[in-house]
Design goal:
six-stranded antiparallel β-sheet; mainly beta; binds zinc ion; 6 strands; single chain
Length: 75
């Protein structure tokens, strides 16, 4: 499994505030790519991309409220 972590200074968080945070990308042997963004306020987004092209997105704000939770299916 490989992981890449990138910090960013200011980005619009799901709660509407501009916050710094970090972006973490991991890829496992099965070809599953996970992209996670964590903001300093506690907001969090995650995107999982499967090798068949389908993907799952999830956005949770810093209150723990799920804003987006959707699955997209590839061809
Ligand atoms: Zn927030």
């Amino acid at each position: 499994m490989t992981a890449t972590i990138n910090r960013f200074e200011a980005r619009l968080a799901p709660c509407g505030k501009t916050r710094h945070g970090e972006l973490r990308m991991t890829e496992d042997q099965q070809g599953l790519i996970t992209e996670e963004v964590r903001y300093s306020c506690g907001c969090h987004t995650a995107k999982e991309e499967f090798h068949d092209g389908s993907c799952h997105r999830r956005t949770v704000d810093h209150h723990g409220k799920v804003l987006v939770d959707q699955e997209l299916h590839g061809e």
